[in-house]
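Write out a record, fold above all:
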Amino acid sequence: MLLLIMSAVVWSGCTKVQEEEELVPELSFSFNLPAMPINLDSAAVASPTGMVLALDSTALAQALEARGYLPGQVLGVSINKATLYCSAPVNGTYDAVGSVQLLLAAGDAAPVTVAALDPVPAGAQTLLLDLNGPDVQHVLQGHQPRLCFRMVFDGPLPPQSSHLLVLGARVELLP
């Protein structure tokens, strides 16, 4: 009899745990946009408009489709990673760079700052940019999305250098 009572208590405890562990649908996810190789002309990137690069307009749609979501379920999108790697010259650093700014825009809309770094640390070969967090859903789903890349220099920079920009995004969804 005692064994029967104990098994009933244990069984009721197990069902309660199972009820509490119901899976909640995923309400957000992160993904990486395709890495962007940048051949930098120091004169172009230092101009007030910066260097303008086209963004992959299908990246968000592909990420949604891969996870079984529809574009109408998106509540917002923010950039959650912005990393710039110096690939040439070999062992090159960002010592001559005082600050970096990344802006996103679509069509003729004004660009919004999504990441920046000011000041750039001495000796850095990789820059982890500080994120500003604005909603960029309209940019990534808009017509002709583009990235504006600006730098301010503290010293001489090679006339040509190569870099790799990696951006990640976080998507918030309707349940």
